[in-house]
Specification:
By secondary structure, this protein is mainly alpha-helical. The chain has a single domain (60-391), classed as Na+/H+ antiporter like fold. The protein has helices at 2-25, 31-42, 54-74, 82-108, 115-121, 127-136, 143-166, 172-196, 199-208, 215-233, 238-252, 255-283, 287-292, 295-315, 323-334, 338-350, 355-379, 396-404. α10 packs antiparallel against α11 (238-252). The protein is globular, with a radius of gyration of 21 Å. The termini are far apart.
Amino acid sequence: METELLSLVVIVAIAAFVPLLVGLLRLKIAEVVLLLGFGILLGPEVAGWIEIDAAIGLLSELGLGLLFFLAGLELEQRAIRGQSGRLAAVGWLISLAVATAAALIMTEAGRIEDTVGVAIALTSTALGTLLPMIRDRGELNTRFGTFFMGAGAWGEFGPIIAISVLLSTKSSFAAILSLLAFGVVAAILALLPRRLAGDRVRALLDRGHSTSSQTALRFTMLLLVLLLALAGSFGLDVVLGAFIAGVIVRRFSPPAEESRLQVRIEAIGFGFLIPLFFVVSGAQLDITSIVEDPLPMLRFFLYILLARGVTTWLLYRRAFPDVRERTRYSLYVATGLPVIVAVTTIELGAGVMETGTAAALVGAGALSVLVFPLVGNALTAGRPSSDDAGPDPDGSDQDRAANTA
């Protein structure tokens, strides 16, 4: 227990000091990169201050679950409808085809063994990592933000479904049946509260927001853990259960209650469990293999740029006629890390991916978070945004105008 607590102290200290380090030094990098970096430096392969046991492993899994829960909670319907949704879906499918071709080439060359896992990892988008940056720039509710929400949703949800179907221990047909059965159960769980909750129950839930009961938050966590367990029991990956739980809460919670819940869940997630997950992921990386041979990491980095960035740049020519703005958008879409960490964690646990391949993939994902947003922002620095130009991606502007009239 003493060793576990000392490791936990180191992990929590990293999580606490990283935001201060970023703020005081005005570093223009995502916190997640530093969390991974300090996890590597203080992990078993370098300083040895962090030891990963079953207890810390469980907390890390909960952090992964909350990360994808919040991704589902952030998902807005307007981003996956209309032109934004269509382009996002087509873009992800094209990215999957390009990534699969790249993975097959690497497999034939003897560079990797886990073709499917690598292909899925190359198609991700770090929606949750970049949303705060877009929000800070005041672009969340603009054309740029709406399109990015659509592409980011597919860049997270697409790999999650692919993980559940293609990386399952079952056959693909059995995995699809399990996925459908899980979807039915999730839909029932989503509808039950509205069917069973009367005015008195709603009043208790509402009052619980301002008392020590925190009833709505407790039921939300129950839904999250229940869907994690159900996904596991259906032979699916737990991140699917977490993402669906977030979508359910977003879809069926009243706007005011959803806002109050989100603040509390983000406090639990980003305050403790999610940074813990990234620190632990860094501590488990085979950093020695990257130092000895950085070429696989650089190769994956270029394949990520090709599969997500180049395909997006070509597909969104009409959506973003301005070349610099489209380039920034494409680099944002190509930025991926959380899903890459999730895929490598799953595949390492299943024993189908080599530690060197996993380390190179995560390193490439961290490099994308470090490089792509910086380059994209530099390209458009000082230029007026073109977000408000052109048609609304989901037609909501016309709806608002009609309602006003």
